[in-house]
Design goal:
This protein is an alpha+beta fold. The chain is 43% helix and 25% strand. Strands 1-2-3-4-5-6 form a 6-stranded antiparallel beta sheet.
């Protein structure tokens, strides 16, 4: 019986050996899965970024996010009522200096989503600031209800005096307003 060797031993049925092999394979699988999930959960450590997102550091108690949602909602309400002059006033002064009201109004009336806008609901806002700055670029993302149904929108805001101004708006991923069609 001793002369069978390892090959002979492995070819014989042995319930204890089979259970031991299954347990070893299961432990190796579980260990690999745990290592994978741990790495995905903790994520790779990266070099410090020059930009800091306010979703990570809430230094403004989200009041700027609330401001952005308010300006974006007011803008869509003005579009819904076809009050293009009022909507144009909510655009940032940098936009208004480079783009005439008639070009803005033409973009509003020529776009099916903008011309049939009803309301907007924002799912998230974020602010990215450069080191040493108190304020940064703000964006708001959500869904605008239109005559044709819901469409994804995102707004880009800049500080414009004492308030936020819309520098541009994307509808379904495409910029909604031409810039630079001014005087």
């Amino acid at each position: 019986a001793r002369g069978l060797g390892l090959a002979g031993l492995m070819s014989q049925r042995n319930a204890t050996r089979d259970i031991a092999i299954i347990l070893i394979v299961a432990l190796l699988f579980a260990g690999g899965l745990a290592a994978y999930l741990l790495a995905r959960t903790l994520g790779p450590s990266s070099a410090p970024s020059l930009l800091v997102s306010s979703t990570v550091i809430a230094s403004h108690d989200d009041t700027r996010g609330d401001d952005a949602r308010g300006v974006g909602s007011a803008f869509v309400q003005q579009l819904a009522m076809a009050h293009h002059e009022e909507a144009y006033k909510l655009m940032a002064s940098a936009y208004r200096q480079t783009t005439t009201f008639s070009a803005f109004q033409k973009a509003c009336m020529g776009s099916p989503p903008l011309s049939t806008a009803r309301n907007v609901s924002f799912s998230r806002t974020s602010e990215t600031t450069a080191p040493g700055q108190d304020k940064g670029a703000i964006s708001a993302h959500g869904v605008m209800t239109t005559g044709a149904g819901p469409v994804e929108v995102s707004f880009a805001f800049v500080d414009d005096g004492a308030a936020l101004g819309i520098i541009n708006m994307s509808v379904a991923g495409a910029p909604a307003f031409p810039m630079g069609t001014g005087p």
